[in-house]
Amino acid sequence: PSHARQLPPAGTIVHFSSSQLVCTCYFAASFIHNMATKTATSNSITLKGSADIVKEFFGYGINSILYQRGIYPPEQFERTQKYGLSLLVTSDDNLKNYIESVLGQLSDWLMQKTVQKVIVVLSGANTNEVLERWQFDIQCDKTANETTVVQKSEKEIHNEIQGIIRQITASVTFLPMIDEPCVFEVLIYTDKDTDVPQTWEESDPKYVKRAQEVFQLRSFSTKLHTVSAAVMYRGEDE
Question: Is residue 31 pLDDT above 80, yes or no?
Fold first, then answer.
C-alpha cells in the first residue's frame, strides 16, 4: 500500500489496503456549492451523471452531519436550497476547496465502479476516540460503462435523497449530545486493486468502541449507484 502523506491546511488524507482499501480524509471544519451536472434529459442518467449525483449528495450530507452534530459553530455555515430543502453548508473557502478535492477523487472511483463504502467519522479532538461512525454503503452496477443510459426521474432521486437528509437533521433527537471538541474524517473503502494517488496513505477503519447501536437510515438509487446509510454511536459511560 502507498504510504505517501499529504498535509493540506490542518488536515491529512489516508489510504489503507487489506481485502479492500480504506481511504481517509481528515479535517476540522465543513463545505459546498455548485456540483452535479445533468447528463442527457432529466430522466436519462449516464455513468458520469450518476457519479455526479452521488458526489453532490456526499457534499451536502457531510455538511449536514457536521452542522447537526455541532462539530463547528453555526456561524460558519450558510443556507442554500437543494432537494426541496433549506440546507446549511460551510462558508469557509479553504475547507470548501479541501473537501471538493476529496469528493473529486470519490467521483473518479465512482466512475470506475470501485467504491464500496464512504464513512464519516466523528472523533474527540483530544482523545482521538471515535464517537460516531456514519456509514454509507455503495453498490455499483459493474456492467455499466460510459455509453450506459438508465431511466429514472430527477424528482424521484431527489425525494429519496431528501429522506436521508431529513433523517440526518433529525439525528439530534436520538444521538447522544457531543460535549467535547471534535474532528471528522471521511474514509473511502474501495476494491483492493484500485489505483490510489500518492497523496493518500494508510488508515485504520476507525470503529466505534463500546458501540451502543446502529441506526439504519434510508437509501437512494440512480440505478447505476445505490447508497444506503446507517450511523453507529458510542455508548454512554457507565
Answer: no
